[in-house]
Amino acid sequence: MELLAKFSNYRFLPAGYFSYDAADEVINYDPIRLKKTNGKISLLHEISHCELGHFHYRYDMELLMMEVAAWNHTKKLADQHGVRVNEAYIKDCIESYDEWVNRRGSCPTCDNFCLEYKESRYSCFVCDTRWQVSPEPQKRIQRRIIA
Ligand SMILES: [Zn+2]
Ligand SMILES: [Zn+2]
User: Fold this and answer.
1) How buried is 118 (Cβ within 10 angstroms: 0-12 exposed, 13-18 middle, 19+ buried)?
2) How far apart are CA 14 and CA 33, in angstroms?
3) Among 12, 43, 81, 138, which one has the highest count of C-beta atoms within 10 angstroms of its own C-beta?
4) Interhelix angle 87-105/37-51, nearest 10 degrees
5) Per 3-state DSSP, what percentage of the chain is helix, strand, and coil (rounded to 5)?
6) Cα 129 to ligand 2 centroid, rounded to whole Å
7) How far apart are the CA of 19 and the centre of ligand 1, in A?
8) 71 Cα: distance to centroid of ligand 2 (angstroms)
9) pLDDT higher than 70, residue 97
10) Chain segment 6-26, per-residue pLDDT in tens
């Protein structure tokens, strides 16, 4: 657990996953995965969200930008603390968010990529279709067309 000891100014809670709970200012971590490099990277990633003050986002694109910023910061922390960076793993994580943004933002009618006009709502500037997505990033992607 030596990595945790280096961040004694944060509150860590053993859990079955890695996440930063901004409301409670707690970083959840998986003690088993923490023994491996990817687990250490995941921990540093959550610490990065915390250090960068990532508290709330409104738009899908903002979440993607936060993820990219957090991963850049993760690389810096990994360097400082002698954790080997698995570039492929980081690339996969960013790509999965990128794909998520792309799928939510693609028009269900004509497949054109659009931006949100308000939280969780999209409208297509090509064919005028409007749709809604779940505000929860963890939820399965479901685009519901709205009239
Ligand atoms: Zn993240
Ligand atoms: Zn369209």
Assistant:
1) exposed
2) 11
3) 43
4) 60
5) 40, 15, 40
6) 5
7) 8
8) 32
9) yes
10) 999 999 999 999 999 888 889
Tell me: pLDDT of 138 over 80.
no
Identify the pLDDT of residue 86. Answer: 87
Give 8's contacts (C-beta < 8 A, 6+ positions apart): none
Look up residue 116 and give its two tokens.
């949100």
E strand or H helix that includes residue 20: strand 19-21
Residue range 39-93, pLDDT digits in tens: 999 999 999 999 999 888 888 999 899 999 999 999 999 999 999 998 998 999 9
pLDDT at 1 exceeding the cut of 60: no
Q: Which residues pair with 12 in a beta bridge?
A: 27
Q: Is 3 exposed, middle or buried (0-12, 13-18, 19+ CB in 10 A)?
A: middle
Residue 45 per-residue DSSP state: H
Tokens of 7: 């961040």
Prediction pTM value: 0.85
Q: From the CA of 67, which ligand is nearest?
A: 1
